[in-house]
């Protein structure tokens, strides 16, 4: 692609250079290199030459209006060429003197070096004596005949005819080379030649069109004579200088070039005739040819670039399409390789795509499923139940989750919104994964954590039961030894035994209440009684470690809540607080109900937690305790149980000052346990 761009750039530069060169040749009669070279001003050497040479003398015809002539009234030398030379004088910064002569004398004076410049047509014969400048104007040579003339149509018909022409005029040289047997009547100027035609002395007059037209108008001969439509020739006029004046020629060419750039001759012609016409060579055909060539070249280049671009674009599209197909195939392979069930649905709940795991579950191939409505397979995976969260995903534009059971297995459904190119959600990806093993492991983990807590409580309970058992044993011995002797002592012994039995029974009941697996549903619970009963299980250990317990909770707070989850939350928080207060302290539980939200604040005055450890305390198996003293699962279980109840838990702690847990549980929120 880079090489092609370089090639196109080179071609473009080449064509631009060629067209610019042709344009400059047409407009200024100079190649691009000459144009750049001539665009410079006069050199110091050329200026010194002009200073040394003095005035430049222009000698030419004194009676060839409107080109050059002496005005009869003012006796001033005037004309189009005279005005042009005055402009050239200003451009070169040197004076040009004018010397009106008869045309023959003007040519001879230039040949002898008596004058410096004269405007004329260049020719091979004149080239023997003069050097020629760049063109300064363009004009035609024409034939003037009587209006009744039928034989002369063009210059080839002048054979054997008598024609009048100005002596020394180039037209004589031209016709002599083209037509033989012409009888020439040479005159001093054009006016005399036309008078010869009027008097019938000649058959025609030949010469420069503007001069002949001027005298025909002046002599009032328009009604009697006509200029033939076809010119003899159309040529450019130049300034001629003597053969020895090469430096002057270079200077004149620079001046002519600069005047051409300013369109000086066009402006002078407009001054004389009010229009810019044939006096300036228009080069219409060359310009049209150039424009057509440029247009064709642009079309060819554009076609080539369009073809190259299309070819490159086609190759790029094919390449990208192939990459896209490979990527799509890879994505589909990955999609099919996932063990999770994957379904893509549109807004009408029609199935756009599914993976192999899903097809395997419902025992259908992909072709049978694609395009069908998910309700048609609802009997297989309870899709009708889960359409609620799918619809919610379309509306809210966010991922959602739900759990459901199917064939004694537990599944988790996750939905993900898929956007089109205008950011509109037009599809939803449904991912269903089997979380049965995860749930079993989670329940086993909870039970293990619970049994570990029970094991920890067992030693304390044993001590608690040993006291009432000792009393029962002692007073049983008293009863045995005091048969029918002291009735008062007997009654006291029986009272102590009954009290000890009740105390032991309470301890055992409390332990059994904690250890038994309660239902996973919400039930009415007196929060204060619940907290007090949980604390009683650890009371002996807390008493031994000199930990004071404070409970701030209204005994009228009765909530519909999942008791099983609440057990795991509090037993782990109490256990951690006991471990943090080995040298005694205060454990405080505050509970409040506000706007249908249950708020717990559990704090201790223990050793605290380092700030860098706070973000990890809810991670599984993270612990700061010495090996053998903790599993790192307590707070992980607490966090999960809070989340199951739809609540939030956060913690703040300072080293050597203590730790506080803030728990909020919505009483009307979603409970994952109830969903299951």
UniProtKB/TrEMBL annotation:
It comes from the Bacteria. Its EC number is 2.7.13.3. InterPro entries: HATPase_C_sf (IPR036890), HATPase_dom (IPR003594), His_kinase_dom (IPR005467), HisK_dim/P_dom (IPR003661), HisK_dim/P_sf (IPR036097), PAS (IPR000014), PAS-like_dom_sf (IPR035965), Sig_transdc_His_kin-like_C (IPR004358). Keywords: ATP-binding, Kinase, Membrane, Nucleotide-binding, Phosphoprotein, Transferase, Transmembrane, Transmembrane helix, Two-component regulatory system. It catalyses: ATP + protein L-histidine = ADP + protein N-phospho-L-histidine. The chain crosses the membrane at residues 6-24, 288-309. The keyword Cell membrane does not apply. GO terms for molecular function: ATP binding; phosphorelay sensor kinase activity. Residues 460-669 form the Histidine kinase domain. Residues 327-373 form the PAS domain. The keyword ATP-binding applies. PANTHER family: PEROXIDE STRESS-ACTIVATED HISTIDINE KINASE MAK3, SENSOR HISTIDINE KINASE. This is histidine kinase.
């Amino acid at each position: 692609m880079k090489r092609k761009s370089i090639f196109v750039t080179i071609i473009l530069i080449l064509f631009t250079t060629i067209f610019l060169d042709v344009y400059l040749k047409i407009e200024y009669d100079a190649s691009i290199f000459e144009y750049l070279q001539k665009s410079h001003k006069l050199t110091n050497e050329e200026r010194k030459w002009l200073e040394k040479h003095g005035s430049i003398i222009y000698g030419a015809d004194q009676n060839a209006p409107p080109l050059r002539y002496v005005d009869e009234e003012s006796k001033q030398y005037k004309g189009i060429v005279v005005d042009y030379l005055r402009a050239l004088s200003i451009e070169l910064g040197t004076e040009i003197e004018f010397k009106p002569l008869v045309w023959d004398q003007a040519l001879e004076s230039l040949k002898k070096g008596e004058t410096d410049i004269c405007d004329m047509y260049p020719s091979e014969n004149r080239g023997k004596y003069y050097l020629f400048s760049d063109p300064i104007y363009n004009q035609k040579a024409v034939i003037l005949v009587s209006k009744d003339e039928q034989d002369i149509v063009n210059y080839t018909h002048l054979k054997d005819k008598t024609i009048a022409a100005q002596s020394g005029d180039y037209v004589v040289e031209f016709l002599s080379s083209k037509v033989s047997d012409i009888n020439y009547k040479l005159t001093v100027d054009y006016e005399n030649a036309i008078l010869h035609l009027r008097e019938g002395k000649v058959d025609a007059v030949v010469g420069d069109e503007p001069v002949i037209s001027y005298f025909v108008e002046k002599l009032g001969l328009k009604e009697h004579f006509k200029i033939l439509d076809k010119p003899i020739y159309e040529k450019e006029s130049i300034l001629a200088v003597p053969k020895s004046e090469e430096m002057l020629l270079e200077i004149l060419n620079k001046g002519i070039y600069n005047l051409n750039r300013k369109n000086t001759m066009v402006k002078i012609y407009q001054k004389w005739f009010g229009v810019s016409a044939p006096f300036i060579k228009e080069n219409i055909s060359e310009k049209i040819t150039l424009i057509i060539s440029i247009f064709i070249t642009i079309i060819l280049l554009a076609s080539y670039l369009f073809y190259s671009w299309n070819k490159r674009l086609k190759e790029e599209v094919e390449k990208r399409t192939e990459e896209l197909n490979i990527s799509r195939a890879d994505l589909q392979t990955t999609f099919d390789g996932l063990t999770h069930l994957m379904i893509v649905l549109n807004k009408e709940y029609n199935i756009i795509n599914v993976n192999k795991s899903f097809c395997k579950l419902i025992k259908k191939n992909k072709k049978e499923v694609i395009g069908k409505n998910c309700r048609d397979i609802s009997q297989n995976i309870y899709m009708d139940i889960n359409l609620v969260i799918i619809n919610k995903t379309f509306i809210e534009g966010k991922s959602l989750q739900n759990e459901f059971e199917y064939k004694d297995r537990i599944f988790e459904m996750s939905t993900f919104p898929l956007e089109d190119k205008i950011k509109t959600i037009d599809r939803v990806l449904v991912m269903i994964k089997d979380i049965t093993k995860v749930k079993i492991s989670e329940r086993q983990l909870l039970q293990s954590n619970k049994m570990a807590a029970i094991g920890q409580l067992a030693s304390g309970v044993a001590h608690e039961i040993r006291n009432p058992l000792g009393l029962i044993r002692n007073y049983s011995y008293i009863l045995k030894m005091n048969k029918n002797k002291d009735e008062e002592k007997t009654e006291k012994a029986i009272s102590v035994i009954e009290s000890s039995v009740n105390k032991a029974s309470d301890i055992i009941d409390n332990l059994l209440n904690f250890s038994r697996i309660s239902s996973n549903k919400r039930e009415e619970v007196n929060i204060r009684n619940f907290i007090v009963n949980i604390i009683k299980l650890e009371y002996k250990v807390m008493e031994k470690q000199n930990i004071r317990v404070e409970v701030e909770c209204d005994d009228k707070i009765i909530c519909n809540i999942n008791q099983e989850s609440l057990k795991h939350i509090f037993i782990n928080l109490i256990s951690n607080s006991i471990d943090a207060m080995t040298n005694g302290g205060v454990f405080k539980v505050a509970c409040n109900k506000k706007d249908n939200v249950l708020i717990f604040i559990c704090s201790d005055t223990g050793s605290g937690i380092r700030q860098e450890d706070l973000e990890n305390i809810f991670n599984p198996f993270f612990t700061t305790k010495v090996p053998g003293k903790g599993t790192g699962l307590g707070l992980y279980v607490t966090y999960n149980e809070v989340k199951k109840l739809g609540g939030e838990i956060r913690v703040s702690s300072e080293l050597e000052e203590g730790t506080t847990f803030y728990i909020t549980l919505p009483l009307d929120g979603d409970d994952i346990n109830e969903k299951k």
